[in-house]
Amino acid sequence: MGRDIRAAVLNAAPGRLELETLTIDDPGPDEVLVRVINAGLCHSDLHEINGTFETEVPIVLGHEAAGVVDAVGSNVTGVAVGDHVLTCLSVFCGTCRYCTGGRLTLCENRAALTSGRARPRLVNSAGVSVRPTSALGGFAEAMVVHRNSIVVISDAVPFHSASIVGCAVTTGLGAVFRSAEVKPGTSVAVIGTGGIGIAAIQGARIAGAAQIIAVDVVPEKLSAAMTFGATHTVNSREVDPVEAVRDITGGGVDYSFEAVGNHATVEQGMAMLRPAGVCTVVGMVPDRTPIQVLGSELFFKEKRLQGSFMGSNQFKVDVPRYLDLYRQGRLLLDEMVSAHVSLDDINAGFDLMVGGTATRVVADVGSL
User: What angle do CA 47, 170, 120 make, to 5 degrees?
Assistant: First the structure.
């Protein structure tokens, strides 16, 4: 039963990832064994590593993964050995009121799907269970995942480009297409130009927004944002971003997207809206920092503040559509990957993220 794999494990938080040999279990009836080829590094992983968000260790992080199916459980249909797949952390049951209502990211049975298992998916050499994040754990040579946390993709899509679609791209595009429903000819501001922010900028471009304003504090990232579709940039270290956005648009944007995860930038996102505008928060704002919004902005100006978890996605439908846009040259994925690191050097990849200039870093975990 099971086999040994190499994995990057977080044993203490804050801390660093450590390479270990773990034993991975065989897939259950509703599960799939995936051999990981590439895994994207996400800021939510970094938040657990540096202690910004509490976590339970030991844990294998990594939720943006692409790989090849090596085995399937007896209840699994639509997925076969040899298929290329990518993962999404918003696993869904398909039967609860939210799933049947089309709100898969709010599935009320997600906890049971990710933790309700008779045996641990991973154990270390001491026989201790190691938790794979979101029941995925992409920073490992293999994963045992629920059938509703993967989607089959075309063999023609490179694994490294596909991997970032599972979180950053799905979140950013979904926030534009599904959560905010950006209309052609409108104005958009995106605060934070990391992977999710760049995906939101691309989504706004594809949706036909007339003005797309990228807001950040890193000149290199603002310059890169222009290549992905931004029409204007604002360096909020140099100017008041709210006033700058109002000046560019003649009064404010129709849509703002907060992709930083900070209460202050959420408040800026609300302030830079024109009346009836919509601010969509995709960043992970810590609960300990309340967001202050003027009541008059809501009832006099009819502004709207909303959240978007994983882009309110329906990923089994959305991902193939996004990859069609990629193959058409309308969605830039290859260009979003700033650097590759090996599994052995994965900590160096997170150091690049901390440096602030990388859009997305991808770990080369395995090979075909």
Answer: 55
- 3-state secondary structure at position 83: coil
The owner of tokens 């799933």 is 99
Q: Which residues pair with 279 in a beta bridge?
A: 256, 305
Residues sharing a CB contact under 8 Å with residue 166, sequence separation 6 or more, in sequence order: 40, 63, 64, 65, 66, 86, 87, 88, 89, 315, 319
How many Å is the Cα radius of gyration of the chain?
20
356: which strand partners?
Answer: none
pLDDT tens sequence across 76-132: 999 999 999 999 999 999 999 999 999 999 999 999 988 878 899 999 999 999 999
123 touches 129 (CB < 8 A): yes
For residue range 189-235, what is the model confidence (pLDDT) as tens digits?
999 999 999 999 999 999 999 999 999 999 999 999 999 999 999 99
